[in-house]
Amino acid sequence: VPGTSLGVLSDTRFDSLKGVVSEASLKAVKAMGFTQMTEIQAKTIPHLLEGRDMVAAAKTGSGKTLAFLIPAVELLSKLKFMPRNGTGALVIAPTRELAMQTFGVLQELLTHQNQTLGLIMGGTSRQSEANKLAKGVNFLVATPGRLLDHLQNTSEFVYKNLQCLIIDEADRILDIGFEEEMKQILRLLPSEWLLSLVVSACYSCVAATLKTTSSPSTSGLDENKEQATVEGLEQGYVVCPSDKRFLLLFTFLKKNRKKKVMVFFSSCLSVKYHHELLNYIDLPVMSIHGKQKQAKRTTTFFQFCNADTGILLCTDVAARGLDIPEVDWIVQYDPPDDPKLWQGRVLQTNIATALNEQGWLLYFYFLAQLFLSSAIFTIDQRKYTISAVPSALLFLEKLITKNYFLHMSAKEAYKAYVRAYDSHHLKSIFDVNTLDLIQVAKSFGFTVPPSVDLHVGSSKARPRKGRASNYGYEGGPSKKREKSVIYKPVPVGNKNRQFSR
Question: Per the domain annotation, does 457 fall within a domain?
Fold first, then answer.
């Protein structure tokens, strides 16, 4: 059972719910391989079955999905919901991958039930979704953007009989920019429902961000006591000069190519470039990012989940809520914008530690010590040797120079990295004015930094002092460095958004 060695299992068995939960649901749970409830399930299911609204914090791998789905299934089953009644239970998830994962669990749970279910999310056929909604979808799993679209534009979407609202990873939904969509969704949905549950990995975050879904009768449950991390997880960081970062990453991945590894980057373009580069130099890797077509993302996600070994490069799209089994290493190649996001990425290793295997989280950037101290981390520095640095660096530079497609991909990835650095939440640590662009450019295979379109504000539009003002274009060093231009001011807009949803 997932979570055995993490201490998340309770002494309560699912068969203790006989007479309260239908035989159909208990039979489905047993077929899924579960006999004992986890702590979050034992604490929430009885309250939810009584119709009490809840705000709960639970780490990934704790069984929270079943904790909120079982009461929802029981509610609609007792009400004898039929397709003509429309949508009775709605689950809102921040990302497509989490929505698909929740939908998969719901499919298994409804094996012996008569209610219909559906999944709506961006990247899929809207018309096909509208046709299914018109026929009646009792259980609906959705991402915020596509859900709002159907609420506003699909006239045959029946949701007036909504009985249960579940918001999963609530704080994450707001973090990735869906606050306005959520406000509109809550205004469009019926003002009263029988059951509501708001779930997150952080109790204080969800309690503060989604007060609008709470009622006076809402119960709060902090299963983690503010610590949604994984017991037994080893964490460490490597202090690495900017120009050696890729070489260290390559050495590390080559050494651990027979393990299951996830590597996080700050932008889609950086994931794309490193995916192309590593595969080109015969180090097979997979990738997931927001600019991929949904079919590709789905295939890659399940391929990595089912694999015993493999390397997955990804952006924050996979950072929260996903329950990916048996991950040996998580590498934070770029820092997340908010130090608290480390928790979401830590949670990906929960099953590895559950199986008594070694789970590792490794931070991989030059300012790691300062960054981690800002998040109140207590972890150790790790030593790691970079092999064949001079020859490997020269090979990378020659490859990027001669290969047109890799050159263009590297240039866009470099620009995205600098923009992400400039927009980082912790300006006191990640200050683009002090960033050594020549060192950074070398990690992307350039001897001279490419130019970057970057909104720098009126106070920064003057020539920069220090390192960042000394470098020219990718064509070669500027003869007159004082006249070199690294940044070009551009209007502020969505084009600088790091992640594509």
Answer: yes
Closest by CA position to 392, among listed 283, 490, 499: 283
Q: Which of 330, 351, 381 is the last residue in one of the domains?
A: 381
From the list 285, 320, 326, 287, the residue with the least C-alpha distance to 305 is 326
DSSP symbols for 337-374? SSGGGHHHHHGGGHHHHHTTPPPEEEE-STTHHHHHHH
Tell me what pLDDT residue 372 has: 45
Residue 308's contacts (CB-CB under 8 Å, 6 or more residues apart) are 260, 326
Residues 100-110 have pLDDT tens digits of 989 999 999 99
Give tens-digit pLDDT for 345-373: 454 444 333 333 444 556 555 444 444 44
Bridge partners (DSSP) listed for residue 166: 91, 197
> Which ranges constitute the DSSP H helices of 79-228?
96-109, 126-135, 144-153, 170-175, 179-188, 203-209
**Structure pTM?**
0.66
Whether residue 315 sits in one domain with residue 422: no
The amino acid sitting at 338 is D
User: What's the pLDDT tens digit per position in 427-480?
Assistant: 767 777 778 889 899 999 999 999 887 654 434 434 443 344 333 344 433 333
Quote the domain boundaries for residue 333.
234-381
Number of domains in the chain: 3
Whether the Cβ atoms of residue 488 and residue 452 lie closer than 8 Å to each other: yes
Read off the pLDDT of residues 370-387 as tens digits, 9 standing for 90 and up: 444 444 444 455 555 555
3-state secondary structure 135-162: HCCCEEEECHHHHHHHHHHCCCCCCCCC
Cα(127)–Cα(142) distance, rounded to whole angstroms? Answer: 15
Taking only Cα atoms into account, the Rg of the chain, rounded to an integer number of angstroms, comes to 24
